[in-house]
Design brief:
485 residues, alpha/beta, Rossmann fold, 2 domains, eight-stranded mixed beta sheet, 18 helices, 18% strand, elongated
């Protein structure tokens, strides 16, 4: 999944167990556990993006993505690496990421083991940390591993991940977990004391707590005999049980993978809806609409076109080339009979795609397309874009700034030029389709759009990005149309 990937070890046979290290760590933190686990399980220990063998700060390499994105990448890796659900074991920050993974994709997680995990916001109570200070068993040997891994990670990677660790409250996700959950905690953990384990225990419906004696924050290293015994007993109980997890996962909109350089985000597994972004933007600004659709039982997937968002760079292209790339991407990801939804100029690429490959889509929805009958549409759109900017919510601006910064002025202008001829066309849209737009959209040529679709719904609340500002209302209209098919 370039440009991000996991380094991993793989050994043993049996139901798979995935081991996820903590902040600044690596797969080597599990060296005293793998020999025992591999006797009855397939064991995969990963180095997360930004850490271990995936990072060396003295040369160019990736910083850690967000926890949500890391969980989405892990889900993609598990799907491609194993034939069924896996046991997931995460230490500290690794447990925090595992909570995101298990909440978003419970179908992939047979059981969850949180080892001295973060996820509960820290309290300003230094006493509870200081009273657990100890010299753990194996301190010198672990210090060598820790120093090496810390050096490889570098200060930037550690600070980025530590900031996310402090700001992310995982309690809402904990309440969604329905698979068996074991909390394995060091008796004298000075970093995440037992008080936090007891708080997590109250949040997770099917959790139980086991305390590892004579151990601190890394109990799998400090007392591996006791740790391995507790872990293997729990895994055997789960494997011997017929209980299954609730298959409806929590909403997640993290990056889920790359196909031939094209990144994508997705919520759920079914890929009912494909969302295609407009000029200069990326799949990120579909987050509110994807969440609203997910709540209504529709799973969305959204690519970043080449040169936009998190996709690898490519030459500026028009709707015909983008349609070809979207078709290849859809075929590679097994997307069939989905509803394709294009926003702004993304709708132009979708229209071209369906015109050339009518069997690829169940239907098409065009949100705020820019087909215009103006003799010089570029001038009209430039002034309209300025007016529309004042009609969008402030919460959209960070996404706009980030997306436009990644795109760059040169690519934005050259891509727009590639689309100019298409903007002037009056295309013959392939049914079934529907055009929708916000009532305050300043970019729409309403007269031209009504010629394309006399049933167009141009009265949605909001402006050009109504799918972001008024996602619930937009989703209601979209679902109503889809269910009428």
């Amino acid at each position: 999944m370039p440009p991000w990937a996991f380094w991993q070890t793989r050994s043993g046979a049996g139901t798979p167990v995935v081991l996820i290290h903590g902040l600044g760590g690596s797969a080597d933190w599990w060296r005293y556990n793998i020999p025992e686990l591999e006797l009855s399980h397939t064991v995969a220990a990963v180095d997360l993006v930004g850490f271990g063998r995936n990072r060396f700060f003295l040369r160019r390499s990736s910083l850690p993505p967000t926890f949500e994105e890391m969980a989405a990448l892990l889900a993609r890796w598990i799907e491609s690496s194993f034939t069924g659900p896996v046991h997931v074991v995460g230490n500290s920050m690794g447990g925090h990421i595992a909570i995101h993974l298990a909440a978003a994709r419970p179908d992939l997680v047979r059981s969850l083991v949180l080892v001295s995990s973060t996820g509960i916001p820290f309290e300003l109570r230094p006493g509870v940390h200081l009273e657990n200070l100890m010299i753990p068993r194996g301190m010198l040997s672990f210090a060598r591993i820790l120093l090496r891994d810390t050096f490889r990670s570098g200060p930037a990677s550690l600070l980025v991940a530590f900031r996310r660790l402090l700001l992310d409250d995982a309690r809402p996700l904990m309440r969604l977990l329905r698979m068996p959950v074991l909390l394995l905690w060091g008796e004298r953990d000075p970093l995440v004391p037992l008080t936090y384990a007891r708080q997590i225990l109250e949040e997770i419906p099917a959790a139980r707590l086991s305390v590892v004696p004579a151990a601190g924050h890394v109990p799998m290293w400090e007392n591996p005999e006791a740790f391995n015994g507790e872990l293997l007993q729990f895994l055997a109980e789960v494997d011997g049980s017929s209980a299954s997890a609730d298959r409806q996962g929590a909403f997640s909109w993290g990056l889920a993978g790359w196909t031939d350089g094209m990144a994508h985000r997705e919520a759920g597994r079914r890929r009912d809806v494909v969302l295609v972004h407009g000029l200069g933007m990326s799949s990120a600004y579909f987050v509110n609409l994807a969440r609203a659709l997910h709540e209504r039982g529709l799973h969305a997937i959204a690519p970043d076109l080449p040169g936009f968002g998190k996709s690898i760079d490519g030459p500026p292209a028009g709707p015909r080339d983008h349609a070809r790339l979207l078709r290849e991407w859809a075929e590679a990801n097994g997307i069939r009979n989905a509803v394709w939804i294009g926003h702004s100029l993304g709708g132009h690429a979708v229209a071209q795609l369906i015109a050339e490959h009518s069997g690829i889509a169940r239907a098409a929805l065009y949100l705020s397309p820019l087909w215009s009958g103006a003799p010089r549409p570029s001038l009209r759109l430039a002034s309209a874009l300025l007016r529309d900017a004042f009609r969008e919510p402030f919460s959209l601006y960070p996404i706009i700034v980030d997306s436009y910064w990644r795109t760059g002025v040169r690519r934005w202008v050259r891509t727009f030029r590639c689309y100019c001829d298409d903007i002037r066309l009056l295309p013959a849209l392939v049914p079934p389709f529907r055009v929708m737009a916000g009532a305050a959209d300043a970019l729409m040529d309403r007269e031209r759009i009504l010629k394309l679709d006399p049933q167009a719904e141009l009265d949605l609340p909001g402006a050009h990005a109504m799918h972001f500002s008024h996602a619930e209302a937009t989703a209601e209209r979209l679902v109503r149309f889809i269910r009428s098919l």
